[in-house]
Amino acid sequence: MAKPMEKYTWRDLNVGCVIDEPGSSLEYKTGDWRNLLPVTDYSKCTKCGLCWLFCPDNAMKPKDDGFFGPDLDYCKGCGICAQECKFAAIQMVEDKK
Amino acid sequence: MKIFKTLERYMEKPDAEYIASGHRACQGCAEVLALRLAFKVLGKDTILAMATGCMEIISTPLPLTCWRLPWIHIAFENTAAVASGIESAIRILTQKGKLENKKINIVGIAGDGGTSDIGFQALSGALERGHRLIYICLDNEAYMNTGIQRSSSTPYGAFTTTSPPGKKSIGQSTWKKDMPKIAAAHNIPYVATACPSYPYDLFNKVKKAKEVNGPAYLHILSVCPTGWRIPSEMAIEYGRLAVRSGVFPLYEVENGVYRITFKPESLIPVKDYIKGQGRFRHLTDKEISEIQDRVNKDWERLTKLCEITKA
Ligand SMILES: Cc1ncc(C[n+]2csc(CCOP(=O)(O)OP(=O)(O)O)c2C)c(N)n1
Ligand code: SF4
Ligand code: SF4
Ligand code: SF4
Ligand SMILES: [Mg+2]
Q: What ipTM did this prediction achieve?
């Protein structure tokens, strides 16, 4: 299993620098980078999915109710989802975390 | 999710992500978005060889990786050579019955520096030999990973750290190398330009590239907020402006036949594309109008190519 970067020593590395766990970057939470947070007004949302489609970090996740919401572990707060929403349903607000 | 239904025309599993979150691309990076979208179409039976560059650095900081596909790191010079080798090995092993006979996509990926400059020779060789592989050039118009140095794909007039504008310099002093047409000159079955700002056009082209029997070359304009000096949220919009102004036309070349795949009713002024970008902020109106003339000419030439090559 992957572990936080700082816990690795050279002894943990495979010969040939082979990485044998696909998608292990999930260990690294890029949500820390965020200054702004996307907040959706679901009364304006048409569930079109453009915010999901254009997110470079696949951090805008489909939810069971058909809406989409940011995964705060990985959303970097780039603002693309808010910019691209045709219905102005997403606002970027200061993230006071 | 209705969008997943629509996407099923292009891909098996619209909700599958082959690049995990946790990658280190800058906020609003459309280069990693281009990959995210392209790999949705390529799907799980895909092997990729990737040159150094932003996408390698952000995706595989040892000991972690964001890839959920077999991926191999390649030096700048030989992405296409390694992809060729993988393709040949799989072909022979399948012939010998040592591998199950199924379609595997072999993909070589490099940036504009890795493609139009350093990996050029290996790429030309691979295209000429006719390997059944897809080569993707992620064009963010400079060597971004090492801090914005000019490549032969940097547009005329742009600031980079090695094409600094000043009293005696306009910035980049040469016109962007026309890689897609150079690839097309190898008479390969499929060449296309694409941009993640037009996702459905991109899906179509990746799908065609996947189905073609021989080399396919995809040249994807990948807006880089960091290097272009634009706000991160504008990455998609600037891709659109590049296309709508004719600066980066979306077209494909199928067996020698050129076709523009997105034709704006009329082109918007190049100035609308250039003006908000920090890398062009030093350009005067006169210089912008010179760029406009050249863009007009190139657009006309492309239109003619479409007419001449029409079946
Ligand atoms: C032969 C060689 N020269 C230089 C480098 C340093 N280097 C690593 S990535 C990079 C920039 C890559 O630019 P590009 O191919 O356009 O990809 P981008 O980072 O812009 O996506 C450079 C110069 C290297 N790794 N190998
Ligand atoms: S882009 Fe806007 S309308 Fe579409 S799903 Fe996202 S929030 Fe809703
Ligand atoms: S702000 Fe950026 S990273 Fe966050 S969900 Fe929106 S598009 Fe994705
Ligand atoms: S420098 Fe540009 S291309 Fe590289 S990760 Fe950042 S935004 Fe993406
Ligand atoms: Mg580049």
A: 0.96
